[in-house]
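Worked example 3. Consider a protein that binds uracil.
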Amino acid sequence: MCGIASRRKADELIANGEVSVNGAIVTELGTIVHPGRDRVFYSGKEVAAVDAPVYLVMNKPRDTITTSNDERGRTTVMDILHARKRVYPIGRLDRNTTGVLLFTNDGEFAHRLMHPKYQIPKAYLVTCAEVVTREHLEELRTGVRLDRVKTAPAEVLVIPGGKGKEVGITIHEGMNRQVRRMFEVLGYDVRKLDRVAYGPITKEGLPRGASRALTPQEVRRLKSMAGIEEE
Ligand code: URA
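Given these inputs, the predicted complex is written out as structure tokens:
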């Protein structure tokens, strides 16, 4: 809870004699300390419990920037979040991309969710100005070249009733502006981009611009997808 290590890793640090309490090395696991009264040191530095973790989801509207502070005074996602605790966005959505954006103050959680190793699926609804051809749908599926990197296989489907211009795409990586660039290199003009899901988290029931806390079950599912053990 001090932002140093996972629970298991903390046990190792303690057992290795790397942690002291009130000036004495403590190697016994389960030793009780009282925050604010006992002084705990690791690696020569005093540690303190950080805030209780917070996990939020926003249905991001258009024309908002995913940053904490915009020098040019444009509206940021933090301006409309109204969080009581200090949190930050997990990854980013472009200014005019809408949909699911997660926030937390849990550094390990954010890091793991964004790490390519865990391949958290992110689903987008793309609205193009043109009808997307069958050949291009296949290319999006197998991978397109962005600069020198080929994108990993993606799930792609045409949205019924979308006149062939609306495509659902699920990617498992997160290169910069990846979805827009995938369509742009194939010659399409992306009119709208909406993230409909981040792993199991959707924006169902959440109006544009609104946010809510994730349920404990949602947090558990995300943690398990990101290989984080629950205590
Ligand atoms: N891909 C994009 O191109 N933009 C986003 O905002 C998210 C994914």
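Take a moment to read the result before moving on. The CA atoms of residues 149 and 215 lie 37 Å apart. The radius of gyration is 22 Å.
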